[in-house]
Design goal:
By secondary structure, the protein is of the alpha/beta class. Helix content is about 45%, strand content about 15%. It folds into two domains: about 140 residues, Aspartate Aminotransferase, domain 1, CATH 3.90.1150; about 240 residues, 3-Layer(aba) Sandwich (Aspartate Aminotransferase, domain 2), CATH 3.40.640. The strands form three sheets. It has an eight-stranded mixed beta sheet, with helices on both faces. A four-stranded antiparallel beta sheet has the order 10-11-14-13. Helix 5 packs across helix 10 and helix 12 packs parallel to helix 14. The longest helix is centred in the C-terminal third of the chain and has 27 residues. The protein is globular, with a radius of gyration of 21 Å. The structure holds pyridoxal-5'-phosphate. Pyridoxal-5'-phosphate (PLP) binds next to helix 5. The site of pyridoxal-5'-phosphate has 14 residues, from helix 5.
């Protein structure tokens, strides 16, 4: 058959990372690759019990199609969950989605035309870059320092765009324990970012899968709550704090945005699986979610500590890394002449793997960087793996 494919394909790059991560199946290899939650945390017993209850008490509704915006019980549970973490939203401001990746997709459909300018951090989340790239957005990257996006650079960029008669459709940021860098935006920057965005009438898209996973330091209010929701759209998911297998996330935004988003979502999947929503709504309502977050923090905090200690002990001179206070990732920078893609197979020979940094730059930069995830391996594996990686880097550098 002579298939005639759409133009969309020409905007999507096959994931280099997936190709490389194939090698991580090697027996004995320790991987700091994918951002997987620790599966020993998955609450199998509780989910199994609640699933039985849902089937018994609400099976005929739970297995039916549901409202596109989400099951009302789920939306109420989500509002309560957010309130526990300082974010207030009304039910009309919430739309349940099939994971935050779908959220990114729907929001891109809602806001982007061919070549629309958007602002994003550099580096930024690969999945978002893929969606924005598929929409053929004009991505404009803003460098980061330890406090998040460089706002002087942002202002300069916005001024330049304005002089050309352009305005970004949104500013995409991951303010808490960013994927991939692990950096958290300071309170002062959050406030300043809101001010800049509001003055220029640009929406902020706050992607926040890791916010609940803070291990040290003071909680920073979300951009959503600092702006009282004005001009901010927040993207949330249970993938990192609970598990990704049910693909449940949600979008919080003003009613007008949610209303339009629902129309788009109708055309995409009619609704997010009702069954999953009923189960997770019960999970939250019965009080398990709070406990889940506590357990996740207890599990990941020592892993982050172990990784930071080992980096300090073993990494050779000429390397530098972020010092995250939560989340799942640490970002390692090597001297400019080292390309982490070129040395990837050498790492595999040393029985350790990482994620190369350049795909997190929409423009292919960052070849001397890598992302290390500490959420999945055990503390013992972290120690052995970092030692192996450091040994290899010492040889190369
Ligand atoms: C910043 C960010 N946004 C969105 C996602 C996608 O999460 P989900 O599993 O809900 O699609 C991820 C997953 O790694 C992420 O790091």
């Amino acid at each position: 058959m002579d298939y005639k494919y759409s133009n969309v394909l020409s905007h999507i790059k096959r994931s280099e990372i997936r190709e490389l991560l194939k090698w991580t199946r090697k027996p004995g290899l320790i991987s700091f690759g994918g951002g997987l939650p620790d599966s020993t945390l998955f609450p199998l017993k509780e989910i199994s019990k609640i699933t039985d209850e849902v089937l018994t008490k609400k099976g005929f509704v739970a297995l039916q199609y549901g409202p596109t915006q989400g099951e009302p019980e789920m939306i109420t549970a989500l509002c309560n969950h957010m309130e526990e973490f300082g974010d207030i939203a009304k039910p009309e401001q919430v739309c349940v989605v099939s994971s935050s990746q779908q959220g990114l997709d729907l929001l891109s459909m809602l806001f982007l035309d061919d070549n629309s300018p958007i602002i994003l951090e550099m580096p930024s989340y690969l999945g978002a870059i893929q969606v924005f790239g598929r929409c053929n957005a004009n991505m404009i990257g803003i460098p980061m320092d330890n406090e998040g996006m460089d706002l002087d650079h942002l202002i300069k960029t916005l001024d330049e765009l304005k002089n050309n008669g352009e305005k970004p459709r949104f500013i995409y940021t991951i303010p808490d324990f960013q994927n991939p860098s692990g950096i958290t935006m300071s309170l002062e920057r959050r406030k300043k970012l809101i001010k800049i965005a509001q003055e220029r009438n640009i929406p902020i898209l706050e992607d926040s899968p890791y916010r609940e996973l803070r291990y040290v330091g003071e909680v920073r209010p979300s951009i959503w709550s600092l702006a009282s929701g004005k001009g901010v759209i927040m993207l949330k998911t249970f993938s990192k704090i609970l598990f990704p297998g049910m693909r449940i996330g949600w979008i919080v935004g003003d009613e007008e945005v949610i209303d339009k988003l629902v129309v788009i979502k109708q055309s995409v999947d009619l609704c997010t699986p009702s069954f999953n929503q009923y189960i997770l709504a019960e999970y939250i309502t019965q009080g398990f979610m709070k406990q889940t977050v506590v357990k996740a923090i207890e599990c990941y905090a020592p892993k982050l500590n172990a990784m930071l200690d080992c980096m300090e002990k073993y990494m050779p001179e000429g390397t530098k890394w972020s010092k995250p206070e939560g989340g799942m990732f640490l970002w390692l920078e090597l001297p400019n002449h080292v390309d982490t893609k070129d040395i990837f197979m050498s790492a595999i020979e040393h029985n350790v793997a990482y994620v190369i940094g350049s795909p997190f730059y929409y423009n292919g930069k960052g070849s001397n960087t890598m992302r290390l995830s500490y959420s999945f391996p055990s503390i013992e594996q972290i120690e052995i793996g970092i030692k192996r990686l450091a040994k290899m880097l010492k040889e190369i550098i």
